[in-house]
Write a structure and sequence with these properties.
345 residues; alpha/beta; Rossmann fold; 3 domains; 14 helices
Amino acid sequence: MKTKKDVTIYDIAQKLALSSATVSRALQDHPAINKNTKKRIQEAARELGYRHNTFASSLRKQKTNTIGVIVHELNSNFITSVLAGIEKVTTEAGYDLIIAHSSESAGKERANASNLFHKRVDGLIASLAFDTQDLAHYKPFEEKGIPVIFFDRVEENTESTKVVIDNYKCGYQATQHLIQQGCKKIVLVTANLKRNVYAQRHKGYTDALYDNGIHYEKKLVLIKDLSEQCGREAAIEIMKMKPMPDGAFITNDFSAAVCMRTLKENGIRIPEDIAIVGFNNDAISKIIEPQLTTIDYPGIELGEIAARNLIGHLLGVSNIKTTNTIVVRSDLIIRKSSLRKDASK
């Protein structure tokens, strides 16, 4: 079967007895082309079934108008909100997105980075996997002058541009709040301490304990994957502790909600027996009963900031190299799950 030949600007030009240059400019909405002529050309293009060859155009311009995004997972309200923020800004600026996820694997992250590099993305926004040790796989981007912005999960001791929240402050705030509610034995449920976000939250937790004269106990720090299963396991471990902790800081709302449900199924009262604070301000934090005290992690805003800075750099109106770290504001949102003093009245 013979394949139908693609329609070109030359076919349109021939049909309308115009120059190919006029047709090309009209299809790009060039202001120098008369409005009526543009209309004639656009109608002819539709009639003939013309499709703009973005790939060829990109090769000529040495740009693809494409932004690559690497995330560590997709099954996350936080990541979804970050992507929504990125997409809002990139769409308005006329850029397409190619989204890849590492599934918390450094090997897959390296493969994703290589793939996006060879797809000639104009810029990259990335969040690191649990076990990523270095940024060597992002070196080709740097060597080619392709800007890269990291968000959330980052390598702190590098000159790369980063968009983050103050995870140390958040860890301290959450723990301090539980202490103010009368908690003296506080369990921390978190993830791999090699990653900056969890290491900083852990440091905030330990410093808040120290500042309040509470002894740090390693057995009260549960390192998990912050999944649904993690929430159940954490609840079971908490109930086995003698005496049982009277406070819990769980650095993921979904895990915190599952933990709360499991505790309640076993007759544990929240917050009377144990006060709980989560992290992210996911929708589930408002649905679970009692509603979950949490740290607001403004994913949409973070995504918008990362995308805006990257595109500003690509358009030459700003330079991401002049700003090493952008810190996005986050706050403690107090709800009933942690209000032991109110609950005791």
